[in-house]
User: What shape does this take?
Amino acid sequence: MTRAGDAVKRALDVVVSALGLVVASPVILVTAILVRRRLGTPVLFRQVRPGRHGQPFTLVKFRTMLDPAEGLTSDEDRLTPFGRRLRSLSLDELPSLVNVLRGDMSLVGPRPLLLSYLARYTPEQARRHEVRPGITGLAQVSGRNEVPWERRFELDVQYVDRRSLRLDLRILAATALPVLARRGISDGGSSTMTEFLGSPGPDETRHA
Assistant: This one.
């Protein structure tokens, strides 16, 4: 993508996220009220994630899990049926439009993961941070959490190498399909994607 393409992409992010926040404001308000009633406070989930070039920013989403202080430690136990429904419809992502408007994220790009993962990436996998993270991306329209970590990172790097406005529009158009079909929300039988512990080295792969 050229410098001009980057400028157009950023302009598209600002316009779409601003319009999205306005148009979706009734849905955001109702969702916030339901989260407050079903899960209590805080209504919003905030967590520091790595952005472009690994620079940290605070990701904002609707809360979908019970507080660990309630004696529940696993994601499976903390994720309520209500929280699952929010995730399956991607309603928990709506506050992240604020991150897009601020410039922390883009509408399309590799998903922002955990800061602890930065030290676990191979140099090739770390290239996913050459661009802003996105609300949706190539890996998400290829299966969301059902895609294994190594393949997911391959798709992220493919996006970095092939990114264009046309590809972004294709990904945005394809994003609605798995959301409406409610596919790929979990990894196998787990509530969320399993933790990435690092890719196996050559010796581990050889003896696997």
The two ends are 39 Å apart (CA to CA). The beta strands are 44-50, 56-62, 106-108, 134-136. The first strand starts at residue 44 and ends at 50.
